[in-house]
Amino acid sequence: AANDRFVLEIPKVELHMHIEGTLTAELRWKFAQRNGIKLRIAEHGPELNSLEEAKAAMDLLRPDPSRVNNDEERFQFFEAYYEGFECLKTREDYYDLAMHYLEHAAKMNVRYCELFFDPQGHTSRGTSWAVMMEGFREAQKTAETRLNVKSAWIMCFLRDMSLDSAMEHYKAALPYRDIIVGVGLDSNEEDRPPVLFEEVFSLARRDGFKLTMHCDVDSKNTHEHIRQAASVVAGKGLDRIDHGMNAAEKQDLIELIQKRDLGMTICPWSYLRHTTYAELGPKIRTLYDAGIKICINSDDPAYMEDCWVLENLLLVKHLCGFNDKDIAVLAKNAINASWATPTVKNEIL
Ligand code: ES4
Ligand code: ZN
After folding, report:
1. Rg of the chain's alpha carbons, rounded to an integer?
2. Which of 114, 145, 195, 329 has the most C-beta neighbours closer than 10 Å?
3. Average pLDDT, rounded, for the chain
4. Is 205 among the domain residues?
5. 242 lines ligand 1 (CB under 6 A)
């Protein structure tokens, strides 16, 4: 619609986007063909024999507000998410994966992004750090020079794996720290509270990395996990919170986040796996009205009916009744919550 032009044209910063969450059926098919491997939607699922079959399998993973709070569905998401890693083998695959996002980002006027990647999911399949990081680095350079999109990487640890594995991967990432701005935590949150990873987050802060962490909306201990992320881990709490939307339900958490001036990365489309439209708008509105630095992001676009940051902005515009001024505040929040250098931040404005 004509009145959505502002949302399209405003310069954007995206801070919560899993590069592996952009593995569309098309990309999976392309990489599987190129590498001569069999494509499946889940480890023990049937082989997918055409692009159409791959698309149909991905379609079943879209969020559907008519079946919210379904544990089965969350399990299916993670199974498919990690199975997708199987088709990535070469440096060229990692380059193409990153470029696919960065080209789309350029079209939406994303000018700077911080992109998550999950190294443990790749090394466990025999991919070397060099293959991964040199592919990413090359894409980053190409995007900056040819597309005017700057980027940095956030290395996420898988919280359903051990602290030892996180520490090992942390150390292995240090040769690539020039392109890694921060450290995050993702994957299945059940029974995996933030404090379990205290040691690696404290070390990363001492080494100069920025810190963030997923506090998913469907976690059983959602409020306690947000509290730990905001005020306990690495001495005083992290530098940002990923999701954490249920803070809207507790005044003390709202005050804690305000006091620490923490940015929060909100991914509206993602929450439709666990939340109804009726709940979603008011929670985001509460955080926004409290003056918290929330920003809007896409999380895993390939799993969300191809909803990228633009579509997520349009969704909150609609659900929260945001006007163009509010959209500008959200865009500004993303710049302020980002870990870009002051020079880069100024260029975006
Ligand atoms: C994720 Cl939706 C979600 N939750 C936790 N970890 C993730 N990694 C990628 N997508
Ligand atoms: Zn995420």
Report:
1. 19
2. 114
3. 95
4. yes
5. no
